[in-house]
Structure formats: C-alpha cells, structure tokens
Amino acid sequence: MLKMNKLYVWVLTLAGLLSGPSCLGSERTKLDNSTVKRLDLTRFMGKWYEIARYDHHFEKGMSHVTAEYTLLPDGKIQVINRGLKGDKPKDIKGKVRQPNPAEYPGRLEVSFFLWFYSDYYILELGGDYQYAVIGSSSDKYLWILCRKPQMDKQELEAILANLRKRGYDLSRLVYVNQDSE
Hints:
Mean pLDDT is 85; it is low at 1-27. The protein has 181 residues and is α+β, with helices and mostly antiparallel strands. 20% of the residues lie in helices and 37% in strands. It has one domain (41-175): Beta Barrel (Lipocalin), CATH 2.40.128.20. The longest helix has 18 residues, at 2-19. It starts with a helix and ends in a 6-residue tail after the last strand. It is globular, with a radius of gyration of 18 Å. An 8-stranded antiparallel beta barrel has the order 1-2-3-4-5-6-7-8.
C-alpha cells in the first residue's frame, strides 16, 4: 500500500510539473504560437544554423549548433543536431514526424529518445526557406534558424519584432556563436 501511495504522489507531482505555470495561477501574456499554414517538407530538409534560442539544459553552453534534416526513403524524417560544447563536438540523432499535415502542416514533433516526442512548431518561414522560427505549444522553447551561419541584421530585426508581437520574451534569447574557428 505504501508503494502505491508513493507511486500516486510521484505521478501527481510529475503531472503538476508537466502542466507548467498554468497550475500555479501564473498570469502571462497570451502567447501566439500559431504555425505556418503551408509547409513543403522537401524544401525544409537540409542544414540549418542556430542563430538564437531560449537556453535549456540540453544545449547549455553550446556553440556552432546546426540541425540537419533528411527525408529518408521510407518517408520518415531524421534530424541530426550538432554543436560544440567548449571544444568538444557533440551530436544527437532524432526523428521527426508530422502528425496532422492536412490541418496543421507546421506542427511537427521531434524525438531524441525512444517514443517521447516534443512539439516542434514552425512559427515562421522565410518565403525562400532561408530562415525558420521554431517554437512549441508553450513558451519554453524558441529557436531562430538560418541556412547560413550568419543572418542578415534587418531580417533578424523583423523576426524579433514579430516574436515580440506574438508575446515571446526576447530577453531570454541566447545568441549562438557561429563564427569560424
């Protein structure tokens, strides 16, 4: 019986943590995390350079971060994230799926561990697929990606202005070092 009670408390605690600030009565600005209405997955494939991100434990202290998407012959999508932590190369391979392409083409899901998938929302795409803004269903994740290691300043400023209008906290952004070594 004691084991069952401990399990019950653990499950409730985990559920509370996963539900985030909403269970704490937090008053936040309404976040607009609407996604792109059209997505050509073939054009999205390839290498993206991380220009800026919200910092999180799995990328903390990393520079020269890239994500490379590959459409596999079986129709599945593979992603390989690479970067440097200090001077040590790090990489991780994951999988991407598009659960509802007809209704929500910009709502993808990504997994780097077993069957645990996280939201991967394409919020904005450059008309020529030269940049992408990625978020999720919450305000915890945000990435600005570009096909080149450096992004045009005017283009970046326009993206930041859009993110501000959407309710994102730009003070949380970490700009990623992509300078050549």
